[in-house]
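S.,

As promised, the pyridoxal-5'-phosphate run. Input:
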Amino acid sequence: MSRALDRVMKQEARLLLPTYERFPVLFERGEGVHLYDSSGKKYTDFLSGIGVNALGYAHPEIQKTIWEQSSKLIHISNLFFHPYQAELAEMLTAISGLDRAFFCNSGTEAWEGGLKLARAYARHVSHNGHAPRTQLLMMENSFHGRTFGALATTGQKKYREPFAPLVPGVTFVRFNDVADLKKKFTSSVCAIGLETIQGEGGIRPVSREFLSAARQLTKRSGALLMLDEIQCGLGRTGRWFAYQHYGIQPDVVAIAKPLAAGLPLGAILTTDRVSRALHPGMHGTTFGGGPLACAVAISVIRTLKKDGMLAYVARTGEYFRQRLLELQERHPQVREVRSLGLMLALDLDSVDLAKIAVKQLLERGFVINRTNDTVLRFLPPYIITERDIDHMVAALDRVLTTNPAPAITTSRTPAKRSKQ
Ligand code: PLP
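Predicted complex:
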């Protein structure tokens, strides 16, 4: 361990709220898909700061935009105009098929704003004398963020329970269970909300049947269909938005992570019709949609378009998936491979093995992450190459070979191949 790391660990233990269990690595810089720690060790990044650094590190276009814009204007508040919110909204509405945007600072804020919009819209369209619909139908095993509204709609007790009581009016539906959705959908529901691909929940895509049932129910009743594409949106799956694989159009979409290449920026996208529920003063933010973050987001989208990154992500994602399926063939500890584009999961049959795999890959110079207990999650920068994937898969192969199933697994289930 380097002296710098040792010092920072001791300081943090004394000074920070104890919210994170970090790996003992002090990262100092990055370039392309590589990171370098305080001892000079090189890593290949298969996590992108949890789905944020889509263009990797030190990308020349991003550096240039930050340099130029920071010398002009970093912040101005939402009391005045700057050139970039409208330009960015123009790009986001064009790629999403939606009409309007609101900019904020993070994923949780984008989702939170979407929830407020759902309640405000229900009030806006409620007929005289009728109480507006307030019920929110959300998914089990979901994750939407840490603020109270987002937390209240997150379908995992471990996140919610320490902070109860939460925002009322939320009912959870079993993810991908159409019968459960239909049973719980009543005339008091103002929105159905879900991640098109559950991220923290282990890379689980919504089924076509479920999403189309959610769309039909909401369309018929006038409730909103809200999609959380904070992790799966903006090119991660090989299309601009994951819902574009399904051929449906939502009423509200929340995005954030890769939007501004690591600067904090999120957005709610919605339709003209829904936006009429808001008027000045009902919602806002000090920092959200500042000139620096928006200028960088414009650069991100321009670069993704210019470099043909969506097709590249789809191709590389398919290659990665095939390589993971080969691992599944060879190692009985691998229960399932799930993926869409460069959002991939290798589901193992033991929590301990998943922990060991993350740790040993880190030691071998590969950054990945474990989620939903047994799932190895891969969210590499979009610029990852087949060669990088080969190196990581070879390392993972060795890790799975040196940690064979009988020695450490507690439960075994037959291996199965996923379709998606
Ligand atoms: N929604 C999804 C699907 C996420 O993956 C996350 C973060 O991991 C969030 C919401 C919350 O985003 P943030 O951490 O930026 O508040």
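The two ends are 41 Å apart (CA to CA). The longest strand covers residues 189-195.

- D.
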